[in-house]
Task: inverse folding
């Protein structure tokens, strides 16, 4: 019960210049166009059909993000709705360095996504996203490194979905 009076006492201690400074800072932030990042407005896409492997983690993440942006996901394609076609998503590994015994010490992970966006009355537009990460392997810690690889792949998929959403917002 004593927390409330302490709060009001601290509030009363604010001086006129302090209040004026806080108001000035908030005015400057709002006038420069600053706003917190949240969901992007996707008014151009009231509904969209996601075409591809229904068990794809990338499509599931994309669907969740589109729902958060208030885009209706369709069960089948419609003539007046956009269609997102996931052609391919793949993970490639390129060797960067080796241990003295010849085992791979470090990989470069390359996550590639090929997709098309079909807007009503337009030709399909192909897109490609390529994300890269370095991954250090340690055969002595195979289980931990396997888990790390799974987490890294999940992060790559999330970044790819964020790029796709940003791209949809720009079109």
Result:
């Amino acid at each position: 019960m004593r927390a409330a009076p302490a709060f009001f006492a601290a509030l009363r201690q604010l001086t006129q210049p302090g209040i004026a400074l806080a108001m000035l800072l908030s005015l400057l932030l709002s006038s420069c166009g600053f706003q917190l990042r949240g969901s992007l407005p996707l008014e151009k896409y009231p509904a969209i059909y996601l075409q591809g492997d229904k068990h794809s983690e990338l499509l599931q993440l994309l669907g969740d993000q589109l729902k958060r942006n208030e885009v209706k996901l369709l069960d089948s394609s419609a003539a007046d709705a956009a269609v997102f076609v996931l052609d391919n998503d793949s993970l490639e590994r390129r060797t960067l360095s080796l241990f003295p015994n010849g085992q791979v010490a470090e990989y470069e992970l390359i996550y590639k996504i090929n997709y098309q966006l079909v807007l009503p009355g337009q030709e399909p537009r192909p897109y490609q996203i390529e994300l890269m990460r370095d991954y250090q392997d340690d055969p002595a810690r195979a289980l931990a490194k396997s888990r790390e690889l799974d987490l890294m792949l999940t992060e790559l998929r999330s970044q790819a979905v964020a790029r796709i959403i940003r791209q949809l917002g720009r079109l």
About this structure: The first strand starts at residue 47 and ends at 51. The chain has one domain: 47-170.
